[in-house]
Design goal:
Elements lengths: L2 H12 L5 H8 L1 H15 L8 H8 L12 E3 L5 E4 L6
Antiparallel strand pairs: 1-2
Helix pairs in contact: 3-4
Length: 89
């Protein structure tokens, strides 16, 4: 499945305004990584460990809306203009 398919499916199923990737960009990749690492360290459960894609974005300072790039690329007003193609390469 493509990123677009996942976003659309989750948005429809859960009736949310944004899909999981867009929401990650809004919240901030750095916040997600920090929170997930803390939860992993506290509880030791693998499902809390941040995904390698989150680490890739975090390490390359592509933190979402705030930096203009995350899973999506954003214009100066914070609107998504395209998918960040470097994420899945």
């Amino acid at each position: 499945s493509s990123m677009e398919d996942i976003e659309e499916t989750l948005t429809i199923i859960y009736g949310q305004r944004y899909g999981i990737f867009r929401m990650a960009d809004i919240v901030g990749i750095e916040r997600l990584v920090t929170l997930m690492e803390a939860m992993f360290n506290d509880f030791g459960e693998k499902h809390y460990k941040p995904n390698p894609l989150l680490w890739k974005l975090y390490r390359s300072n592509q933190l979402g809306v705030r930096t203009g790039k995350g899973f999506y690329e954003y214009d100066e007003n914070g609107n998504p203009v395209s998918i960040n193609k470097t994420v899945f390469n």
